Recover the amino acids of this structure.
């Protein structure tokens, strides 16, 4: 759902936060060759797999790196995409939202996917608190994609 509904421009700088082995960032990098992508994850093995997949698919506009949240990320982005680690706890998700706000350019957006009735509505309220706005840009099978913009 996040791949299908992500909103950003052709020349955007995009962070796939918590990328795992990289499917979201890689698919979007292929679809938006003029955009620049950073894929990051706290899991070293996941990032190694993302790097392998980037090379295998000959993706020139994406790089992957290990980072616990934003500890190894200094850049600012037009869009940050996140499937929040809800099983790791609400506090971690909120920290990632707050850090995302600090790493977005003016007009940039945080876009997350979550099950609305399994904590997603609570996460949306936290996005509203942090950003001052939130909207649902897609919904399907109980999942919602929420977007907050840095204004």
């Amino acid at each position: 759902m996040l791949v299908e509904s992500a909103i950003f421009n052709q020349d955007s700088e995009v962070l796939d936060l918590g990328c795992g082995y990289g499917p979201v960032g890689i698919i979007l990098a292929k679809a938006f060759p003029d955009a620049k992508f950073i894929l990051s994850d706290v899991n070293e093995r996941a990032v190694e797999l993302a790097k392998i997949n980037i090379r295998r698919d000959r993706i020139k506009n994406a790089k992957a790196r290990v980072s616990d949240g934003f500890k190894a990320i200094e850049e600012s982005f037009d869009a940050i995409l996140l499937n929040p680690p809800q099983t790791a706890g609400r506090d971690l998700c909120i920290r990632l939202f707050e850090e995302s706000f600090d790493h977005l350019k003016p007009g940039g957006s945080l876009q997350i996917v979550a099950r609305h009735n399994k904590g997603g509505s609570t996460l949306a309220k936290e996005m509203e608190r942090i950003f001052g706005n939130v909207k649902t840009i897609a919904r399907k099978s109980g999942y919602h994609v929420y977007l907050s913009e840095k204004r």
The domain at 10-149 is CATH 3.40.50.150 (Rossmann fold). Residues 1 and 140 are 8 Å apart (CA to CA). DSSP finds five helices and seven strands in the chain.
